[in-house]
Specification:
Elements: H1 5-23, H2 27-49, H3 72-103
């Protein structure tokens, strides 16, 4: 059970963000829920890269092959995911500010010009 717990947490966080996104009546709240959805990918990447009793993949006095090491690619992907998530959130919040300035509201139901 402990092997699947991080994956279940990632799914739960993603579904909680999706539920908030689907029920949101505010664009700022929707951006926050989208950030919560993306934070599930951090948990997922860390769950994929975790190894029991593994050390950091750096050069030290440990003989090669004596102990397992953690995959550094997964750690780099998680760090890249954090940077991309912060950038996307900042861009979306800037767009929400422009929508609020132009239309005077952040309620998606009141934005009649955006209806197809």
């Amino acid at each position: 059970m402990t092997d699947v717990l991080p994956y279940l947490v990632a799914v739960w966080v993603f579904l909680a963000g999706c539920y908030g996104l689907a029920t949101s009546r505010n664009l700022i709240h929707a951006v926050g829920c989208l950030s919560v959805c993306q934070s599930a990918t951090y948990v997922l990447l860390l769950a994929v890269g975790y190894r029991d009793e593994a050390t950091a993949p750096v050069f030290s006095d440990i003989e090669p092959g004596s102990r397992p090491v953690v995959d550094p690619v997964v750690q780099a992907l998680a760090l890249t995911d954090v940077v991309v998530g912060a950038t996307v959130t900042a861009l979306l919040l800037a767009l929400v500010i422009q929508v609020a300035k132009r239309h005077g509201t952040v309620d998606p139901d009141e934005l009649s010009e955006l209806r197809g």
